[in-house]
Protein: ATP-dependent Clp protease adaptor ClpS
Amino acid sequence: MDFGHNYEEEVEVLEEVEIVDNKSLVVYNDDVNTFDHVINTLVKVCQHTVEQAEQCAWIIHYKGKCIVKTGSFKELKPKQEAICEKGIDARVH
Structure:
């Protein structure tokens, strides 16, 4: 006598998910720093291309601020400090 029971076992696989608390590095406009200074700083500190840095500089000029980089607080804090050391107002939000 063949009972022929077929059993399928369902197995749940747990994946490790890294929760990232993304922050924004924001640069603010001022009446002191030149376009070239801001562009050069963004290229050096944020590893922007010249074109990216120019676009950010125009946004900063016309809108008063621009998110120039996103990432973890740990990643952005040294960049914020380096930008501020160049006399440019930047904050991590």
The domain at 23-92 is CATH 3.30.1390.10 (Ribosomal Protein L30; Chain: A,). The chain has three helices and three strands. The two ends are 71 Å apart (CA to CA). Residues 40 and 56 are 11 Å apart (CA to CA).
